[in-house]
Amino acid sequence: MASAETAAEHERILREIESTDTNCIGPTLRSVYDGQEHGLFMDKLEGRIRNHDREIEKMCNHHFQGFVDSITELLKVRGEAQKLKCQVTETNQKLQNDGKEVCVQCRLQQRNIATTIDKLTHCLPVLEMYSKLQEQMRAKRYYPALRTLEQLEESCLPQAGSYRFCTIMAENIPLLRTHIRDVSMSDLKDFLESIRKHSDKIGETAMKQVSLVLLIQVMCLSLTRTVLQIPGAQDLVDFSPVYRCLHIYTVLGARDTFENYYRKQRRKQARLVLQPHSNMVRPLTALSHALSDLEDHILHTTQGLVNRAYVEELWELALSKTIAALRTHSSYCTDPDLILDLKNLIVLFADTLQGYGFPVNQLFDMLLEMRDQYGEILLKKWNQSFRQILDQDNYSPIPVASPEEYQRIACQFPFQDPELDKIPFPKKLPFSEFVPKVYSQLKEFIYACLKYSEDLHLSSTEIDDMIRKSTNLLLTRTLSHCLQYAIKKKNVGLAELVQIIINTTHLEQSCHYLEEFISNITNVPPDTINATKLYGTSTFKDARHAAEEEIYTNLNQKIDQFLQLADYDWTAAQGGAQASDYLSDLIAFLCSTFAVFTHLPGKVAQTACMSACKHLSTSLLQLLLEADVRQVSMGALQQFNVDVKECERFARAGPVPGFQGDTLLLAFIDLRQLLDLFTQWDWSTYLADYGRPTCKYLRVNPHTALALLEKMKDTSRKNNMFAQFRKNERDKQKLIDTVVKQLRNLIATNQA
């Protein structure tokens, strides 16, 4: 079995040796030498070689005769081939000799043709390029013409050679460049002139774009310019002259010249735009176009014509001049509506420029400055309104005939009075017309302040603070001065002053409604930390106190007028039994006056009554001690005492409710003790108890007593010139002298 497998393997190896390339026979032979039966394989190989040798020998024997025949034929052909070679050589020599001259002429013609073709090849591009140049110049395509000139000069003409037409073309190239430069500059100047004339309209369009976008944002619509198809500067302005001129000057190597010229002209136009103008809308819209759409478009569509530094420099120049012009323009404005329109225009202008990346903080700072001016103009306007309201008021309670009238007033002024609601119509409100009118004007002022604060990019807290501060100025300055004017003006009666006090009381009570009103429109709670509080309460309190003081002053002036009618006989021997006429009239006036005070707060009426009684008491004492009154008799003093008793009766009657006990009588206590001291002639008690807390005449000043006693001393001497020899008169005179001396000693002791 092993022999059969070995024989098959040897057969396979032999076939591989026969069929395999000798370069690859190595592995086959290695398998033979690696085997165990290589001797047997060698025997088989020898046998196979012998077989192949026999086959080769058979084949050679078979083809030998044919080979011999072929050799014989070749030997015969060799002679004929030699003859043919000699004939060909001879013929070739004859042709060479005969065609030598023709060949020279042909080669010369070929060389001339090649030279001509070469020259034409170099000249034709020049002619074609020059023809193209002429066509571009006729079509005013100057930038491609420059490129053509460049190719013509640098490539085509040098290759063409020094022909006359090339020389003429080369000489025309600088002239053509100059012509192209001049034409492009002319187009640029036309462009600059065009945008100067139409810059306000284009700027207005840019600002309208921003206005529309802001309106859309307010309406919460996310639409872009693309969706809305709003035209921009590139849609309204043909920038091709700028680009063309820039490219032309760049190719000509004069880009710096063009950039300097363009920037210089744009600066000049900016200065012209910002010259003082009666209508600030045109400069702002023109500047908006110049700096927003135009320069921004140039900045982003050209490489280096304008850069961010140049645009910012132009903006700084424009901004400073704009702010100066706006300040000058607004400083002469006295109409708040015009100021408001100007503010809205500036805000739109600032938003437009801010959208293109320009800093606009200074514009908003200026708007905050203008806010103060706007506030001052509002204060002046409202000053006139308040004055007119106060001048036209009748200072009488408002009569209300129907619920409709009551509701109309309640809509103007927050007034609630449950007791008044129970009274049937017709009835009267406690305040006069100026209360609802003033309150309505306060709300209108707040609305006017709110209008200015809109769109200033302020927070609700800042707006609330601004409105409250402006309202405080209106309350503490404008309205306060108007109320003071109404209180202090001439011919203001006590009834008007009483009504002013009632009115300011109700306005004071309405201040918290104003606080709520401001909080509602600014959405800032009134109890916010650091929130500015309205000074309305203090304003109306001050006005009420001023009215009260005016009432006190008015009452005192009336009392002084009555006292001027006093006509005492200071030397009368006997006093009357009734009060003086002037004093009776004065008491009657005071009673009727205090009857009007029923609607006043209790303390006001009580203070007015106490002030009047004190002033009356002080004035009576001054009347008694007046320097012009040199003598006072006991009879005159008795009459004076009757008048003081009438005053005390008035005080005791309680002309104004609310006084406890005889409190009002204390106003006359100084006068009463002085008169009791003299009418009772109780000097021993006065001198003995002086300085003690329980002294009966504690309120009698020794200076006052001495002055009055001196007047009575002189009277006693005059009336008793001839009675001085009577003993009782002499004793009385001595007593007066003694008391005078003791009073002087008492005064001297106190001064020491």
UniProtKB/TrEMBL annotation:
A single GO cellular-component term on record: exocyst
Keyword Amino-acid biosynthesis: no
Domain Exocyst complex subunit EXOC6/Sec15 C-terminal: 362-711
Record has Transcription regulation as a keyword: no
GO biological process: Golgi to plasma membrane transport; intracellular protein transport; vesicle tethering involved in exocytosis
Domain Exocyst complex component EXOC6/Sec15 N-terminal, chain residue ranges per copy: 44-207
Function: Component of the exocyst complex involved in the docking of exocytic vesicles with fusion sites on the plasma membrane.
Name of the protein described by the UniProt record: Exocyst complex component
Organism encoding this protein: Cyprinus carpio
Gene: LOC109093705
